[in-house]
Amino acid sequence: MPHLTIDYSVHLGSAFDHAALIRELHSLVLEESGSVGVCKTFMRPAETYVGDSETGTGAFMHVEIGLKPGRAEALKALLAERVLAVVGRHLRPGPAQDVVLSAEVRELAGSYRLAGDAEVGAGAGQAMPACGSPLSGRR
Hints:
Blueprint: E1 3-9, H1 18-33, E2 40-46, E3 59-67, H2 73-90, E4 99-107
Parallel strand pairs: 1-2, 3-4
Antiparallel strand pairs: 1-3
Helix pairs in contact: 1-2
């Protein structure tokens, strides 16, 4: 059920193994949040600026995690800290390149709904496999 969005500076694209990062983040988020279901992740390279830089060379990565309401703020803060630790282990920027990392755990709005199309790829009437399961294509 968790929704992850990973926005990162376009020039960091080769500084980490995308699949390995997603795999570890999915496991962490499901374990720490107590969520169940299908993980959904957007990974988006973007033009980024840090400070007053006008060159677009600032290196930045932000991870946002959307969960259904009801988790304590302390749990969300701890999850954000652990996400930053995982990202830090995976990221290998170029020499002399400082990277700003941030993470946010937020609650999905009360209006959040998941349409039946979430079963795309699973066949009608079958649930999609959870992240990390052999049928999901991601381990």
